[in-house]
Structures are given as structure tokens and as C-alpha cells.
What we know:
Elements lengths: L2 H17 L5 H7 L3 H8 L10 E5 L4 E8 L12 H6 L1 H8 L8 H14 L6 E8 L10 H10 L1 E6 L1 H7 L9 E6 L3 E4 L9 E7 H7 L4 H4 L32 H12 L4 H4 L3 E5 L1 E7 L4 E7 L2 E4 L1 H13 L3 H4 L5 E8 L3 H12 L6 H4 L4 H12 L2 E4 L15 E4 H11 L3 H6 L9 H4 L10 H16 L9 H13 L5 H14 L10 H4 L3 H13 L3
Parallel strand pairs: 2-3, 3-4, 8-12, 13-14
Antiparallel strand pairs: 1-2, 5-10, 6-7, 7-12, 8-11, 9-10
Amino acid sequence: MNLSYNKGLVFISSCIESLCNEKDIDRISDYITDTEYNSYLYGNRNDDHGIDAIFIDSEGKEIKLFNFKFRERFKVDQKQSFNEAFVSTKLVNCIMNESIDGLEGKLASYVTKINELLNGNEVWKLSLYMISNEALPIEHDESAIQQLKNVYDMEVISICLPHITSIMSIRPAPINAELIIDNDSLMSYSESSISTSKSYVIRLNAADVIRITCRNADLRGDHNCENFELLANEKIDFGVLFDNVRGFVQRSRYNAGIAKTLREEASKLFMYNNGLTIVADDIKAHPVNGHRKVRISLSGIQVLNGGQTLRTLHDFNAADKSNITEYISKGELLVRIFNASNNETANKIAEYTNSQNSISNVDLKSLSTLQIQLEQLLDEHGIIYSRKNGDTGIHDEKEYRYKISMEQFGQILFAYQGFPEKSSNQKQHIFGKYYDGIFSEDNFNFSNAPQLVESYYEIKKAYSSSTDSIQKIEQKIFYIIYMHKVREDWSYEKCINMLEEALSSYYPLSDVTLTDARKMIQVRFRESVSEMLHDTEL
Length: 538
């Protein structure tokens, strides 16, 4: 696989990770139907019929078809091509005709599944995502695109470079802002009566929220801005969301609710919404206008909670130039601004304020000092440590060898420490009740993290080159990591063969027939493997 295609593959996987909210690299691999990708990885050169990936969103009831185009050379005026959309209709025709003739491998399986869903009683949306690193999107009001929608009842969604940069992690310069707040809209807080460091809870106009988080530094600093029409064309500065634990959610049922409230009941936004939690490196507050108002200067702001609300505000603003004056300026939000110059304090605020909402433990831990240090360590060894969806490495210009999600690394580490049966079966607890033990320096020397990731990928490579009769599943890799730690004298190939022997000779206490996957989550099986490792002669 050449360097150009490698870049294209990173482009595809990173976009899928962000747009489908999926961190598991193996699952992302399952979604990819691209001919060249599957030929390189599996030796199956099946025609992709113009569709490079497929994702079935069970929660949102959306069938997402992806067509990717990666350009090696960037041109500022280059626009996405209509032809790519029509190339993709080869597979759409198969779906519409309920036929898998000419389809092979995972593509045939996906079309079969899609037709089962479309023939069911639930309502499913069919969408074609046209994604490229070009500067300009397809015009959706063009007759050709409208024809696709009418003929196939399929929405065509164009995503190009400006949108892609917004959904990837951005490492920002400090963002500063100024506010003027009425006394009756503000409450101050300090940890003690003698503390000079104060935090604030304020009632803030939604238009001011857009102003202090926009890309225009002059507007962010203009606390006297009363002409909200100036904000109509302003975009969000995604740097304010760098420390937000949530990855980008392309479509959320909550986003639609916020937009509906803004349009129909803007004055009730304050009551219906949880508001924002902001931290700042420094907060300076001065009474003005005869102590009737307070001027607040914020340095280095980050929105730790309320990122989806903020995005929706900006999206609603961008939808129509009149929205800022007609709707947004009539709403208010509760905004908590904490002085958190100490990074650990900011991390705890992010964790504790988000733990009240529906958010995973792995995301809550993504801002801990240890996880950030691991990201930096692995980066030095050419490995992307994906703490959040869309992470593409610390240095844009750097060529990375591997990418591993924080969740995957937790599973690998758990297996390495002697619990391969729990790496899959109880992975939801790795960043919960087991976290302090797994990510403890007493149990693992984190300077060895790069070597552990290297081992993971070497084992994957060894499995990919093993015989076709061996079932290749992620759980087996966790066992090989554990086995090789105990028996460093064994090659990965020998560990693989010994594990296969253990699986074939293992019988549960009951008469129930178990798959290999079910066997490997049993403590009794892991104990039998442990006995084999210690009983086998060196």
C-alpha cells in the first residue's frame, strides 16, 4: 500500500470515527467496503460499487452510505464532483432492486441487512455522505442532486474540508473575551472569605454566548456590542471546545429540541436548558457604572459542559441571518464561569459536571493528567493516542505509524495485567470501578506503553497471516498479550497455536456448546490457560 493510499485510509477512518461516534478501530474496519482497503487487509478484491463505507445507525434509524475522495493536491477553488454521487448509485440500485447480484463479501451482507430493515415496520432514512478534502461542497439545490433525492428517496449530504476541520480535535491558542453583566444577573463565588480568586454564575444573553465563542477576536473583546446583526455571519471558534469531553455529535435529538425552543419559545431557553460550564485561566471583574454593572475579562476560556448547546446555537445562527436578532437575542442561558488556572481543577470540573449527564466513563477520564501524558508519550513514538473522537495526532505534519483509542489501550492494559477474560466482557468498567487499579503506576510502568501498543499491532499482523481456519477475533489478541507476558520465550505464532489448542480442548461444566468468544470470557478458561502456561516446559 503506497503512502498516498495510506493517507487516504487515515482520512476515511478518522471521518468515520467522528461522524459515526465510533472509537473501536476493528469496528471501523468492518464498516469500510472500499475495494483497495479490503484487498490489502483481507486479500478480497471485491468491487465496492462506489460506496467506501456503510454504517447502520440503529439509534437514529439512519442508513449511512459513504463515498470518500482524498485529493493529494489542494486547490482553493476545487469543488466536489457530481460524478462521485452518481458512481455511488450503482450500490443504491442494488438496494432499491433488493438484489445482491454481483455483490460479494461484506458488501453483500450489508445490502441484505439494509433490505431487511427497509422491508420492516420501522421508518429508516437513507443518506449518502459525499466526503472529500476539497474546499467547496456540492450545491444541494442543483437539479442533479435533487433528482437523486426524488428517485431514490435518499438525502445527499456534502462534507468537505471546512466541515472536516470542525469535527477534528483542534489545539487552540488561548481564547479571551469580555462581558458586561448587570448586578442582578450575577452571583460570585469564592472557596473562602479570604480568597482573591472568584468564580461566577451569570444569566447571559444567548447572543452574547455566540459573541464570546466566535472566531472574531475583536467581537469577543467588544463588551459594548449591541448591534447583534454583526454576529450573523460569525462562526464558532472550535478551540473553546478542545477540553470538552464529548466528541462531535453530528446529529442529536437534543440539538433539534434546542433549535425548536429558540424558534418557538426563546424566552424559556433559560428554563429548558442546563446552560454552559466555562473555565478560564484568569478572571478579572471590575464594578462599573456606579456599581450597577460588572465588567468581566476572561483569559483562556474553555467550554467544559454544554458543547452541544453551543454548537446548536451557532448552527441556528448560521441557518439564517435574521435568526440572531429574531430569536437568539431573545433567549438567555445559565453560564457558570470558574477560575481554574490549575489543570487538575479544570479536569475535575469537567469530570464532575459531565458525570451528571449521560456520558461514558472513558470520556470522563479523557482529560485526566495521566491520559494526557500518555498521549504525549505515545506521540513521541509515532502513535496517535485517541482520547476523544476525531483525534488525529498532536502534530498535523507528522506521519504516524499506529492509532489506538484510549478505550482499546485500557483493554490491552487490563489483559496485560492478567485479566484477558475481562478485557471484553467487562470493558465498560475499565474506566469505572477498575480504573484506579489498571492505570496505576504500581501495576504498570507507563514508559513501556509504546512497546505494549507495538505488541498489539504485531499480534494483529501475526493473526492476519495465520491460516484461514483460525477465527480472528479481538478477544484472542488480549489473550495473546497476556500469554506472551507470562511466556516471553514463546513467539506470537506459538502463543496463537497454544490458545487454539486450549480452546478446542476446553469444555464447560454444563453440556451447553459455547463459541470461542463465550469460552474466553469465563474465568475458568483463563485459569486453564494460566495452568497451561506454567505447566508447559520451558
